[in-house]
Every structure is written in structure tokens, then in C-alpha cells.
Design brief:
Strand content: 35-45%
Structural class: alpha+beta
Order of helices and strands: HEEEEEEEHHEEHEHHEEEEEEEEEEEH
Largest sheet: 14 strands, antiparallel
Amino acid sequence: MKQLLLFLLFSFSLVNSQTIKKIKITDAETGKAIPNARIILANQIFYSNDDGFISLPKDAKQFDVSIAGYESLKSAKYQSTIKLKPLYDDIEEVKIVSIDVKKIFREVLNNYSEIYYNKPAVYDITYSQKSFENEKMKSLMIADGKYWVRDGKFNGKEAFNGKHDNFVQLQIDTLRYFKTEPNEFNIKVKEDKGAHDGVGNFFFNYELQRMNSLSKKRNAITTGRLVHEDELEQHIFYQIKTDADLTYSGTIIFNKKDRAIINFEMIFNQSSFKPKIYKDENGKEYARQSPNGKFVFDFYKVGEHYVPSKVSIKYDSSKFTQGENIFEFRSAREIIFKNFKEGNETGLQRSVEINSAFWRDMKVSAEKGELNLSKEELKFINDGNDEN
């Protein structure tokens, strides 16, 4: 089975090399690969993988390359390597220019429907998810499909009543890859059926509401620093330190003319908190260390409104301890919105439950498509005898 899989991947790469070309995005000063750089090409969205590579159609010529923290670049011709110049070397060394980031968060949230597309929309997407246990990759899922939203916003009332599909639906057209290896984790954790973050974290208004709520907490300290500015944009570093001694920090890119946040990164660290004690399904105690994380939202403008191009959610340092057993986990979930189309009120025809492991009951396609896999992902796929 392994030899067959390697043959299929090799055959795919031969066919693929005729239709795509790879570009590596690097830091102009250090030469290091830059993951998550975006290229917009004829209203199609592409992102560099963990190794800095982007796979583009062979006839790609003129395109824009951008990522937070670097100068955007317009490329008029194909280059095997594109070097981006950092806007600043170190945020801590940037001259301090204070800015009221609380006001920006509040203003953007209050005007959300005027800034971001607020009608039914359908996106062709690539959805990926992977997880690690004690630094070993244990699962990888990559699928292509469609993503429908009613008005671009998370609706708390409908979510509370279990009606997510009223405002968001996910359809899987092709399950490109799904491989999982057994976890050593053996703690029977009780399922939390009341959590909404699994769906809410896909929506920027959900995160904006979180930022506003955190900054309003008693004794919370919110700061903003302008680290770069040009005619169109402000690059702002922010930090919210709550009364619980928890810090949320990150960067935003704010379009001054449209009064829109077009890129949002939020990092939180909970390692200073003591692990909480729970009981498993058998009544046996275990300790859980809450994870650290990073959320990224990326937008671009279509007509008069902004639409998403990527949502990335990463967790790490989530630790479970029971007796002498210690299990540490990290995970990543990502949606790349490859294009945008106007939708309708009826939604999708073959939607899956967005807040579930829907891929477990689906058949993996032999057609792999033009996916931009990293070396780590390819190694994981090739190291086993069976994708399923």
C-alpha cells in the first residue's frame, strides 16, 4: 500500500508540474522561508505553506504578494524566489507611538456590516486540520469544498440553540487526504457539548466581541503601538492584560480610508495559570493545562466590502496529566477562501455538521488536486501503510 501511495504521489507531481509552478517566499534579510504569505491572482487566493512555497498556475504572471510585517510586493513576472522586506526588525525596538486600539476595535465592531460583506456568500475553500501528541503528528485532514454564510457574522442566539446551519454551512466536495495514527492518550474526558468556540472562532465579529469584552474587564490594561504607517494603512501592535493576569497580544493592519481591520493576529498565553483538576468518565482525577494559541484573520476587498481570504486557528501546550502519564497536544485548523461568489438564502445542498469530525465517515479521493503540502505533511502521509 505504501509503494502504491508513493507511486500515486509521484505521478501526481509529474502531472502537477505541467500545470503549476512553485514560488518560494523568503525574508529578504535573513533568507528564511515565510509561511502564510498571500498571493491574489485573478481573484484567486493562494498562501505559502510552512516551508514558504506557493503553487501557482503555470501561466501566472502579474500578482500581489503580502503578509503582515513585510512590505507588499507586485510581481510582474515569474520568479522562483520572491524576497520580502521586513517593515521593522523588532517590535520592541520600534519608536513608541501610542494609539487607541480599544477605539478601533469598538468602531469596527459597531460598523461591522458596513465594512464586511453582509449578504449570503459562497466560497470555494480548502479546509485543513492537523494535530500533534507529544510533538508527533497524529492526524492530517485536507479537503476541498464550499463554505456558505448568511451575512458574514456569528449569531450567538442561534448558536446557543444549536442552529449553526442557519448562518453558516460547510460542504465537502473532495476529501483529499485523511490519515490518523493512534494516540497514546487514554484519559476518558467528558465531552463539553455547550462550547461554541468551534464555530465562533471562524468569525471575525466573534473575536472582535471577545477583544471588546476583555478590554472592558475590571483592571484590564489595553495598549496600542503604531509600528508602521503609510498613506493607506496603519500596522498596530496591541496588548490586553486582564485582571486575571492573562495577556492577549498581536497585530492588526488597519485601512485608514475604509476604517477596516484587514488583517488580525491574536496570541494568548495561559501557561502561567495552574492546571485545573477534573474527573474523567470513571471518576478518576486528572489535571489539564489550558492551551496557548494564535488566531489569524485575513481579508481583501471585493467591490465595496471586505471578504475573508483565510482563517487560521492554532493551539499548543495543552497538557493533560493523570498519575505518571503526561500528554501534550497542539493542533492547527485553517480555511483558505480561494474565491468569493454571491450566494442565496437557501445555503448548500450537501452540508456537513461543521462542528464535528465529519471526515471520519467520508471516503478519501484518489484525485489529490493541486495541494501545497509541506515537507512535514508529506512525510506523515508517506510514513504509514494506509491513509485511513
